[in-house]
Amino acid sequence: MIAPPDRTPLPRAFFDRPVLEVAPDLLGRVLVRTTPDGPIALRLTEVEAYDGPNDPGSHAFRGPTARNAVMFGPPGHVYVYFTYGMWHCMNLVCGPEGRASGILLRAGEVVEGAELARKRRVSARNDKELAKGPARLATALEVDRALDGADACASGETPLKMLTGTPVPSDQVRNGPRTGVAGEGGDGDLHPWRFWVANDPTVSPYRAHVPRRRRS
Description:
Elements: E1 6-9, H1 12-15, H2 19-25, E2 30-35, E3 38-50, E4 78-83, E5 87-94, E6 101-112, H3 114-120, H4 134-140, E7 160-165, E8 173-176, E9 194-197
Antiparallel strand pairs: 1-7, 2-3, 2-7, 3-6, 3-9, 4-5, 5-6, 8-9
Keywords: DNA damage, DNA repair, Hydrolase
Family: Belongs to the DNA glycosylase MPG family.
Enzyme class: hydrolase
């Protein structure tokens, strides 16, 4: 008999570690998004690590801005950014305060509240696609900039909370280059910092960075 996922909230100490320790350890953990219509729970299957000032692919590489301020705050908080003028993406801050490392939540399996996620992801062909990619994940969970700075480790009723879930065995964890990252930050030899669950159908496909063309 398979034991049900552990519903114990993850403590802040879980996130107060080096980003490359936290990222693979997030796989199998459960993120719960509480909405006015009810909860949506997501088992994480794919993440990417970003190591602040040591990482040219990180939003925090050149220091704090109004956009990335949450990354320099306490671990366990949510950093949400808006990209391409269309999509939101969600990250979890980790490491000591002021260090500015974080983990992009790239994909997951909706394990509760799928009917609510489907309303937001009407183009998904099946439930495996509901949160298959970081923008799809944020859309399925109704995450936008209003949740930037939310504390995923706070007690009581909160809009976002991380639960212990069922950690993935190390022999089922894979890693490789980050998706869509330009330059040195996208070099898989230097930064093989995308982590995913082997053979999981909710993991997004890898895509190398393609420069965007300016409109004439």
